Amino acid sequence: MSIVDPTYRNERQNDIDLGRRKAIQVAGGGLAIAFLWMGGAGKVAAAINARRQPDDAAAAAADGNPPFAPNAFIRIDKDGSVRLVMPNVEMGQAIYTGACMMLAEELGVGLDQIKAEHAPPNEPLYGTPLLGGQITGGSTSTRGTWQTLREAGAVAREMLIAAAAAQWHVEPESCAVSRGVITHVPSGRTIGFGTVADAAGALPQPAQVKLKARKDFELIGKPLRRVDSPDKVTGATQFGLDVRVPGMKIAAVKACPTFGGKLGRVDDAKARAMPGVIDVIRIDNAVAVVGEHYWAAKQGLDALDIEWNPGANANLTTEKLVADLMDASLNGKAIVGRQDGEENVSGKAIDAVFLSPMLAHATMEPLNTTVHVTSGQCEIWVGTQVPVRAVEAAAKITGLPVEKVILHNHYIGGGFGRRLETDSVEQAVRLAKNVSYPLKVVWSREEDIRHDIVRPMYYDRISATLGTDGLPSSWRHRITSGTVLGRWAPGAMGKNGMDSDAIESAADLPYDLKNVHVEWVRHDMPDGLVVGWWRGVGPTHNLFIVESFVDELAHAAGKEPLEYRRAMLQKNPRVLALLNLAAEKIGWGSQPLPARVGRGIAVGSPFGSHVCAIAEVEVTAQGEVKLRRFVVAIDTGIAINPGSIEAQMQGGLLFGLSAALYSGITVKDGAIEQSNFHDYRNLRMNEVPLVEVHRIDNDETPGGIGEVGTAIAAPALANAIFAATGVRLHKLPVDRSLLIAGPDALKQTVASATVVAGGTQA
Amino acid sequence: MFVLRVNGEDRTVDVPADMPLLWVLRDVVGLTGTKFGCGIAQCGACTVHLDGQPIRSCVMPVGSIGQKAITTIEAIGETPEGQKVQKAWLDVDVVQCGYCQSGQIMSATALLTRTPNPSDADIDAAMSGNICRCGTYVRIRAAIKQAATGKPEVMQTIVSGPAGGAP
Amino acid sequence: MKRFLGFIVIVVVLGAVAYFLLNRTDKNDGAAPAIAGAPATADVLARGEYLTRAADCIACHTVPETGKPFAGGVAFKLPFGTIYSSNITADAETGIGGWSDDDFVRAVREGVRNDGKHLYPAFPYTSYTQLSRADVLAIKAYLFSLPKVKQADRDNDLSFPFNQRWAMGFWNAAFFRSQRFVADASKSPEWNSGAYLAGALGHCAECHTPRNIGFGLENSNALAGEELQGWRAYNITSDPKYGIGGWSDDQVAQYLRTGHADGHASASGPMGEAIAHSLQFLTPEDTAALVAYLRTVPAREGKHPVDIDARPVAALASTNAAPGGDDAANAMGLRLFEGACASCHQWNGAGQQVSRASLIGTRGVNDPKGANVTQAILQGVKMRVNDTDVYMPAFGHAYTDTEVAALANYVIAHFGNKQGTVTPDDVAKKRAL
């Protein structure tokens, strides 16, 4: 990864009084904007704070009662060990490392000196203002904590210094902090954090603290090693699935495969007779077999003779869903998300229709929850992006007050939005209510995919007119889909019924366009087919449409796609700079490409960041797509950890490419057809291209990064395929049968293909 | 009743012969570093070594293991190659969610043990059975090369701030 | 003119005589040799259950996974249309509950329904005609002891003239002989049991004997191999090179009991069903009888002999964990194999975790046309043998025709040392079956 133009020019980030208004300004796109665009529908209480809060004393007491706990995030024990409590959850995005860096930078410790801890569910202490709750998603974690965590570190530092200065009878200003040690600079005296922890804990909190200037950062901006990786390379990390509670039994579960269907009759005689099988538990839409170990439970589950009541969706198919979506697009009522200028502009008219599939998350760690329900308490062990929602759901099911629901959060083996849902937790609580012992409910991979809460299907009709210069003189885009936001946070829906996530990155285009009309038609899925957040949310869908269509317009205008975009980005220097950088790095236009090799560009500004990706692919005569090389240019403002940014761009891009090439959830007889990695395919090592990440550094407020790569992947890929083959893809995943070179290509024996060298990193 | 040689220790387990080794390790022996991902040998998260050979424990009937030595992620760092791989994984900062990484490290260690200087094609052959949803593949490749040669392949991580003596 | 008319009359009369002679029913009840698993002294329901399994009725009369036992509805896609199996539970309205013993016996042994209409020979009455009346009625008794399922038969989807059931009378006249099993006194009782198990009950010939242009069995080439529903039923004659003459008795028996014989074969597709539903349940004595009989089937090369290379160069140049000796032309197939296949099959083809994943020495990987390799990739394997799941994923849903063809050809090259000839079009045709 290269860093372009490193400048450390001003210190305006020192402003610690970041109000909600500013937060809204910097939030940028994605899930966050869904809450903010409409005026902010989140709970006011749900806001992290750098200073002590009413709940803090109890939280610190529950966390080992350390002598120094100035706020919800910092605990310093007598022996000087520093524990940092993470407001967000770690699911791979490296937020524990980023959050620790922000805290440690101001606190004055090294990352090798701290231990990161999972936060307990506590919305007033750990709620993210951008999402209005203790929620990790929408690439908001850094954006939502950038000011508060640094300030929290500074508050702690000032108090520790004050305690040391008082002990030495010196001015606090004459003291410095490094690596957990306070030094009185003139005398050279030193004292460790642990020694002054008690005294510091008794001091009042400073009203004002000064944050470091960027030029003084010692940690922020450097590729620090992840705080969670040492345990992850030895197998020591505890994911939810790894929980082992004394007396625990393990359940394998099967829910009605049909959306919204119920459990009918179950003959469990065979299962109960099997060795290791302990119990069979029925709930309204699922049945579980409990065993001493998962294998016994699974064997028992397979031995059940189950009758389902499939309900109203028994005959539902993908074809029917698509037909209904198309009908809604043509005849439904649209809500306008953006309207500038004229509606009817004459000129060369281009239009296109796009269909995007439902997608499963397929996190590597299948869904699981361990629950122990006793008469007065419900204890839960799980990895979740929404700990408070999980607690509230469990309280409702058990009838217990929320304070009697204890939730232990865990490292998450892949979230991608799936663990923003509580369905698996609710199911586990309902099952565990029936038994006296702690119950670990494990979903098989098949259960995990067949009962995913899928990314919705989208149907897009988009059109433009071209002016005499070939550039768009008008732009009209109608998106039709179900709504995730409308179910997940109905209060965040616009007053006019708009789902801001559905139009994110479609209404807020990076280009200088006139006469733009963007609208959305809400078309709810049949009851029981629940749609959910999926990495990159609205932008993953909309950037594919917008950037594919821009490419289509360039082609119609007879313009080169790079020049065409440049012409429309003259007023957007940040994105233009990225476009130019990526083009330079891939060597755009420098030499002719071989036959059936093509490059495709995509730009966008999702999640408060800006990005340009250029893909280079080869398409064989028989339509197989080989990923040769990807160059990504990213501007995410101030980088907390450039190593994490590169990793998220590479990983996010591959996640998006995997979906664009292979993934689509289809429905037959009201049930998801896919079940495991053989039919819900994932990109493998030997298909992975070179992925170069180039970063433009500046002093802008940090943007989100976890979903940016995913959102920009598909359009770059599709545009490269167009360049290689002349085939414009209006549907995902890539239909390789459309890319065949000629009618005889499939009549030949397949035994010739050029070998693409495995990818290495630039 | 089977006596398994796990990470150098004998473990007696009372389980059915067709029970996959994965669940014996996780639910009976209590070693949870080996992960469940698919149950059908398609993702590699459950990879362990049997007499040094990488196998998918999710489809390995415990009854057919016999005397073979089982090595899991918890003990792979005790082999020279495992140690090199784990160090390279940290230096390159491979992991994201980390769930698949036990299996990735077991596959990579087996590769380096038999092929100390693997080519890209060798890496493809050894590693393509391991799925990573986070998409850490680019860094996995770099880390394997770095483990093999000892030379930095890509951006290296810093363990702590420059003000302190990083270990 | 008169002479011409007279000629016509004679032809018609001779034709009618021939039709009736050729459609003549063997009036004998027939006598079965001793079957170890269904001794004459046993309870009729126990005998019926064993014989129903040995005749593998369930495979064709139960929709896999979702269907109720014996309620029919399984589709058989044939070149001229689709036939659906019927409900043979005792439900009076939709099944065969109203059938008399004679009705049932006639259907099983003559291919004629209780309403007098002909059945299609997708139903193997051509083999079951050898069954003794006692055995057929034991099967009926067993079926009638099971839960009745109300499930209407599905109409066949056949084009003219194949939708004319009466026309099957002519087919029968040409290709079917109503004939009970006749023991061969010159052979051992064990051999006779085996002949009855293979010929009358197991109906091996229906898949393994080549068919002529009229879809009749080519008995001169008995059990020399045929392709059916896109799968190749291999040569199971005693030919040492092309048949199973080179397998030991134990290997044949192991295969019949488990669906796998080390170094020779792992069952999938229709044979996998036969193992899972039928052959694994035979008693050891009956399996041995079947082996004894198969040993005596005259050696024949068959129409598409498969030459087995037991020491394929590329596989021998590979280790369990790393490939070697591959032609760069097969790179696409190699990449697919390293991703989705090598974890179980291994590069040296030895098979890992479970022995049935071994590939070396199998006819599947040695058949350049790759019929069964292609089908196994597309459909996978899912069966339960000896209370253990036997599973290979079905890759057809997420891999293109081109990928499946490339993978099949790679497997044939690497493990069979042959140039595979599978094209994406071939794969598409198999998918359409």
TrEMBL record, chain A:
Which superkingdom does the taxonomy of this entry point to? Bacteria
UniProt cross-references to SMART domains, sorted A to Z: Ald_Xan_dh_C
Q: Which residues form the Aldehyde oxidase/xanthine dehydrogenase a/b hammerhead domain?
A: 234-312
GO MF term list: oxidoreductase activity
SUPFAM superfamilies for this protein? Molybdenum cofactor-binding domain
Pfam family example for this protein? MoCoBD_2
Q: What is this protein called?
A: Isoquinoline 1-oxidoreductase beta subunit
Q: Which organism is it from?
A: Luteibacter rhizovicinus
TrEMBL record, chain B:
Identify the domain of life: Bacteria
Signal peptide range? none
Name all 2Fe-2S ferredoxin-type domain ranges. Answer: 1-76
Tell me the InterPro entries matching this sequence. Answer: 2Fe-2S-bd (IPR002888), 2Fe-2S-bd_dom_sf (IPR036884), 2Fe-2S_ferredoxin-like_sf (IPR036010), 2Fe-2S_ferredoxin-type (IPR001041), 2Fe2S_fd_BS (IPR006058), Beta-grasp_dom_sf (IPR012675), Diverse_Oxidoreductases (IPR051452)
Q: Name one Pfam family in it.
A: Fer2_2
Keyword check for ATP-binding: no
Keywords linked to the UniProt accession: 2Fe-2S, Iron, Iron-sulfur, Metal-binding, Oxidoreductase
GO MF terms listed in the record are: 2 iron, 2 sulfur cluster binding; metal ion binding; oxidoreductase activity
Q: What is the protein's given name?
A: Isoquinoline 1-oxidoreductase alpha subunit
From TrEMBL, chain C:
Q: Does the keyword Metal-binding feature in the UniProt annotation? A: yes
CC terms in the record's Gene Ontology section: plasma membrane
Q: Where in the cell is it found?
A: Cell membrane
Task: Indicate where this protein is primarily found.
Answer: membrane
Q: What is this protein called?
A: Mono/diheme cytochrome c family protein
Cofactor details (free text): Binds 3 heme c groups covalently per subunit.
Keyword Ubl conjugation attached: no
Which residues are noted in the entry as heme c 2-binding? C204, C207, H208
PANTHER family from the UniProt entry:
ALCOHOL DEHYDROGENASE CYTOCHROME C SUBUNIT, BLL4482 PROTEIN-RELATED
UniProt cross-references to InterPro entries, sorted A to Z: Cyt_c-like_dom (IPR009056), Cyt_c-like_dom_sf (IPR036909), Cytochrome_c-type_DH (IPR051459), Membr-bd_ADH_cyt_c (IPR014353)
Domain (Cytochrome c) spans 43-147, 189-298, 328-415
* Binding positions for heme c 1 per the UniProt entry: C57, C60, H61
Q: Output one GO MF annotation.
A: oxidoreductase activity, acting on CH-OH group of donors
Domain of life according to the entry? Bacteria
Alphabetic keyword roster: Cell membrane, Heme, Iron, Membrane, Metal-binding, Repeat, Signal
